[in-house]
Amino acid sequence: MTTASLTDTVHLGDGLRVSPQGYGAMSLSDAYGVVDDATAYATLVHAVDRGVTFIDSANIYGSGRSERIISGLLRTRRDEVQLVSKAGIVPGSGSAGRRELRGDRAHIREQIDLSLGRLGTDRLDLYYLHRVDPEVPIEDSIGTLAELVQEGKVHHIGVSEPTGDELRRAHAVHPIAAVQSEWSVLSRDVEAHVVPTAAELGIGVVPYAPVGRKWLTGRFDPAEVGEGDVRRSFPRFAPEALAANAPLLAEHRALAEEAGLSPAQLALAWLVAKGREYGATVVPIPGSRRAAHVDDNLGAVGVELESAIVARLDALAEQVVGARTRDKRTSLHREQGVRRDARRRQIESRG
């Protein structure tokens, strides 16, 4: 059953309204395999032509290449889209685990101007702190982003991959419009604290990698993961993990057929259904390098899954082999943050 269309808009938070599905513009770079600029741009234009207005990029995607490709669209269609970028990650020498996190004022103010220059615009609709810097209080990072709002360079603020406690602290400094985290049928850790906190505070949830970095589409071929492909750094894409998880993929595909959907559509519809359970607005941002895949993803807009299908999908994550990231610093930061959340709730429960 479908209940909405791409002509509708949804409210994330802080007055920001976007299309019910966005476009993850990391796919405009070579992150998931080589793509030429012309093909990448054509896919982006196709998505916007179809009604996708929520375009999510970052300064580090292709070392600015994603933003430069988007700039071509903005020359004539800036007012048609809600434009997103991020700052807070400095790439290291290749391994995701060696990247540097920076949430300091100097870095954020430097990067907003560089992003605006590459994009060829004077403002962003949403600007994320890409990761919480453990060396900088989140209040300081959000305070700098709030300055950019006052200056008109940014209209709304978001945070990517915070803990529930960090999200609450950020929101206390300035209204947060959206929280972005990896969330899918396979990766559900954000449901413990982040999604409930977002729902409580009226913050929209923007899941990235919502189709498991292509794995949940049923089109993934391990042979396509070459040098430079970001999936080489994720434990879940190691050969032994892919083999162990193959039965889960088969079950997911069988459920998609039962629901009359493609595997990608099932994964995306599941996310919106889970958001409804938590009382949170959810806007997934699948990335695609081909127009046909954009069309497939958009087939999920407005689909309402039967509760029995949702429940059967819920059981899959508990059986997944392999972590979603090898980034030990981020993982440790999240683990420590979750522990802080638990301690805070214990204190509150004692009155």
UniProtKB/TrEMBL annotation:
Gene3D superfamilies, sorted: NADP-dependent oxidoreductase domain
Gene Ontology CC annotation, any one: cytoplasm
Residue ranges constituting the NADP-dependent oxidoreductase domain according to the UniProt record: 22-317
Keyword Metal-binding: no
Ranges in coiled-coil conformation: none
Annotated stretches, region: Disordered: 324-351
A GO molecular-function annotation: oxidoreductase activity
Protein biosynthesis listed as a keyword: no
Keyword set, alphabetical order: Oxidoreductase
The name this protein goes by in its record: Aryl-alcohol dehydrogenase-like predicted oxidoreductase
